């Protein structure tokens, strides 16, 4: 019975899960930001390429 009481009061597992959830949330936010930035860079490079190929520098 003491084992179960000690197990219930132990919060180390809960803390590890919380840190894992925070890390996952940060990863999702970073991936979203990088995808947005990648799309903007792609658009910019396409505009530059089009302008340079037309000779309108």
TrEMBL record:
The molecule here is called: Flp/Fap pilin component
Top-rank taxon = Bacteria
- Which UniProt keywords are present, listed alphabetically? Membrane, Transmembrane, Transmembrane helix
Q: Which residues cross the membrane?
A: 21-38
| A Pfam entry, by short name | Flp_Fap
């Amino acid at each position: 019975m003491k084992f179960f009481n000690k197990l219930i009061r132990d919060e180390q597992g809960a803390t590890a899960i919380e840190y894992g959830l925070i890390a996952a949330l940060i990863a999702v936010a970073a991936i979203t930001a990088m995808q947005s930035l990648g799309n903007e860079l792609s658009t910019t490079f396409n505009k530059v390429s089009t302008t340079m190929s037309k000779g309108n520098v």
